[in-house]
């Protein structure tokens, strides 16, 4: 089987992770091209990744007939337009979350995907490809814990990244805490339950970093969600974990419960010293979800080669974004917000 030539767009922190996987670890892909408006990123692509072609213009990259697929790791507001451009140019498209920021543009993506049935489109909700989450999903689907009644999700970034995030906020928008971070947990709630979120009530604060009030973003937030079948979702999202990267999920059912990563243990080592028993913790999302990032792109290649639709659809992206936007509206207004689908 011939390798698929892929072009990556965006080489920031996550873009570099994807690029190295494409160049070094996924035999079905050949990292052929890179696109960025940042010259240092293009230099990195040539010097560290060995790409054959570099582009500053996405349209020029799409005009290269040698490219079979594109991987988009760009700012959220660019996703919808770039997805449509990629599909119309005849490329398979993988795009990082979120799908978009506005319903109207996401519906245009949905139409474009429907109009190009022979091309694979896939959205980057990578937790679905994490081994622990996949195992938990199998247990839930097999009825091991009965019917799901409540899901509790924590997603808190390490405070070591706050300075750089504040600098980012001075010039750009993250889309808000729920769209930027909790959207992964929204997707997990929908995935594990098979239900849509119908109502949300959200709160937020900037106690440790009040400067975020001025910059229009949020340090810590929480949301209570009602699902269509009356199951409950609880989400805590934040940017200020002192101990490292804190992601965990608890699923409670009528016959039992399960927890995924209730401690973010880096490995199986326990240090015994004057502080007691100490377990090293994962410090960032590349460390915790390294396997998931690799697995999702490996599967993307398989979907292309097997002419299969990706299981993470445009609808998943639309519904998750709608719920995240509703959480943001509820946090701003202090009111319960119903979601109309």
Automatic annotation (TrEMBL):
GO terms for cellular component: cytoplasm. Keywords: Oxidoreductase. GO terms for biological process: NADPH regeneration. Residues 133-259 form the GFO/IDH/MocA-like oxidoreductase domain. The keyword RNA-binding does not apply. It comes from the Bacteria. Residues 4-122 form the Gfo/Idh/MocA-like oxidoreductase N-terminal domain. The keyword Transferase does not apply. GO terms for molecular function: nucleotide binding; oxidoreductase activity. Belongs to the Gfo/Idh/MocA family. NCBIfam families: myo_inos_iolG (TIGR04380). PANTHER family: BINDING ROSSMANN FOLD OXIDOREDUCTASE, PUTATIVE (AFU_ORTHOLOGUE AFUA_2G10240)-RELATED (PTHR42840:SF3), NAD(P)-BINDING ROSSMANN-FOLD SUPERFAMILY PROTEIN-RELATED (PTHR42840). This is Inositol 2-dehydrogenase. The gene is iolG.
């Amino acid at each position: 089987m011939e390798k698929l030539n892929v072009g990556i767009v965006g080489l920031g922190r996550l873009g570099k992770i994807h690029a190295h996987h494409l160049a070094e670890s996924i035999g079905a892909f050949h990292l052929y091209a890179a696109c960025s408006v940042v010259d240092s990123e293009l230099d990195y692509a040539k010097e560290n990744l060995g790409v054959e072609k570099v582009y500053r213009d996405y349209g020029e990259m799409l005009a290269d007939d040698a490219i079979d697929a594109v991987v988009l790791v760009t700012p959220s507001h660019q996703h919808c337009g770039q997805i449509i451009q990629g599909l119309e140019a005849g490329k398979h498209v993988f795009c990082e979350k979120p799908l978009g920021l506005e319903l109207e543009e996401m519906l245009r993506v949905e139409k474009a995907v429907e109009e190009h049935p022979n091309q694979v489109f896939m959205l980057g909700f990578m937790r679905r490809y994490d081994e622990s989450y996949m195992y938990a999903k199998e247990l839930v689907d097999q009825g091991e814990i009965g019917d799901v009644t409540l899901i509790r999700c924590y997603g808190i970034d390490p405070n070591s990244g706050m300075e750089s995030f504040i600098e980012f906020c001075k010039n750009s928008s993250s889309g808000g805490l729920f769209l930027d971070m909790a959207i992964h947990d929204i997707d997990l709630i929908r995935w594990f339950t098979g239900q849509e979120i119908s109502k949300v009530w959200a709160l937020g604060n900037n106690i440790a970093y009040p400067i975020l009030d001025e910059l229009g973003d949020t340090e810590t937030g929480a949301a209570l969600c009602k699902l269509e079948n009356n199951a409950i979702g609880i989400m805590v999202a934040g940017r200020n974990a002192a101990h490292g990267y804190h992601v965990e999920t608890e699923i409670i059912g009528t016959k039992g419960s399960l927890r995924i990563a209730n401690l973010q243990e880096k490995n199986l080592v326990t240090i015994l010293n004057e502080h007691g028993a100490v377990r090293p913790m994962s410090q960032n999302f590349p460390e915790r979800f390294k396997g998931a990032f690799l697995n999702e792109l490996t599967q993307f290649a398989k979907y292309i080669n097997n002419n299969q639709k990706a299981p993470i659809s445009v609808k998943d992206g639309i519904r998750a974004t709608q719920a995240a936007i509703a959480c943001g509206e509820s946090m701003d207004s202090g009111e319960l917000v119903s979601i109309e689908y």
